[in-house]
Amino acid sequence: MGLSTHVLDTMHGCPAAGMAVSLFSTRGDEATLLQRLVLNHDGRTDAPLFDNASLRKGTYRLTFDVAAYFKARGVVLPEPNFLDRVSLDFGIAHADQHYHVPLLVSPWSYSTYRGS
Hints:
This is 5-hydroxyisourate hydrolase. InterPro entries: Hydroxyisourate_hydrolase, Thyroxine_BS, Transthyretin/HIU_hydrolase, Transthyretin/HIU_hydrolase_d, Transthyretin/HIU_hydrolase_sf, Transthyretin_CS. Residues 3-115 form the Transthyretin/hydroxyisourate hydrolase domain. By secondary structure, this protein is mainly beta. The protein is 6% helix and 45% strand. The radius of gyration is 14 Å and the shape is globular.
């Protein structure tokens, strides 16, 4: 149980190691930063964003620093970038379940879903 994320770089066909991610709690238009982290070699966090005991019902935002990641990989991006940061707003309705929020991303597109 808890909350986790995973990012796959669909341009290079690999995990997005080194991508910066921020987690916020949200209430309407207000967002409170909970943590900032960098994804490991597998494109994941080293520990769950929330473990079983700390996950709470509510609304959250994950923000992924996509442009900085691709620039660090040597990808030449137009200015301004098509995607700079990708923010995903989502809700936790059942704190007793696991929520996995994966991101599949390139410099020009992204998709997500509730994973397991």
